[in-house]
Each structure stands twice: as C-alpha cells, then as structure tokens.
Design goal:
By secondary structure, the chain is mostly helical. It has 6 helices and 2 strands; from the N terminus they run E-H-E-H-H-H-H-H. About 55% of the residues lie in helices and about 5% in strands. Helix 1 links the parallel strand 1 and strand 2. The longest helix is centred in the C-terminal third of the chain and has 15 residues. It is elongated, with a radius of gyration of 21 Å. The two termini are about 30 Å apart. The mean pLDDT is about 80.
C-alpha cells in the first residue's frame, strides 16, 4: 500500500467483481477483499522499508565503472563479459564488488546510486 497499490484482489475473483473493482479504483476508491485482514493491513502499514545506502567507502576502478555502465544498459553478466573479454564468473565477482563498494544490494540500486554519484 505504501508503494501505491490501490487494491488487493485474490486470483479467484469473478469477472463481474473484477470489473467492478477496476472501475472503483479508476474512480479513486481503494478495493480490498476480505482475504486481506485488519491484522494484515496493520502489518503492511507498519513496514518501513529502508533502502539507505552507505557513503562511497572506496572509489570504483575504471573496470568497475565500465561494468556499472554495462549494468545500466541492462546487460546480463554473460552479455557484460563479451565486450570486456572476461569470463562470466569474473563479471559476477566484479558486479558483487560494485554492489559492495556502492553499499547497495542489487543492480537496480547500483545503477541509481551510480547516477546519483555521477559515475554513469
């Protein structure tokens, strides 16, 4: 809900209920089916996801910056390995090092952090 969801439906909903629910959401309402209990809603509201990143502890090498640029292009480890002339396992290690140095946990956040720091 914090991410902007305006409704929750189970997959076993009837077509007519689905249609009414879509229309309600389009009209600005929130649609929650009984499958979502008050307890579940409270737990969702209580979540405070934190995606904070640490300060850049160590500068990226030129190769790591290149890996980051290729990550930003949406390439897989295998696709990154080809222009760099590295084995896929080496690229996997380089990606892990980039994530670690940027203080993030996944490639998407690494790219966002790289943009924020002007590395890309």
């Amino acid at each position: 809900m914090r991410a902007g969801a305006r409704g929750y439906l189970r997959k076993d909903i009837s077509l007519s209920d689905l249609t009414r629910s879509i229309e309600a959401v389009l009209a600005g309402d929130t649609v929650l089916r009984p499958a979502v209990t008050d307890h579940g809603l409270e737990r969702l509201r209580a979540l405070h996801p934190s995606f904070e990143v640490s300060e850049l502890p160590e500068a990226l090498t030129s190769r790591e910056k290149e890996v980051l640029r290729l990550m930003a292009a949406g390439l897989s480890n295998r696709e990154i390995s080809e222009p760099l002339g590295n084995a896929e396992a080496t690229v996997k290690t380089q990606v892990s090092t980039v994530l670690s140095k940027l203080g993030v946990r996944d490639c998407t956040r690494a790219v966002l952090r790289g943009l924020e720091l002007g590395l890309i």
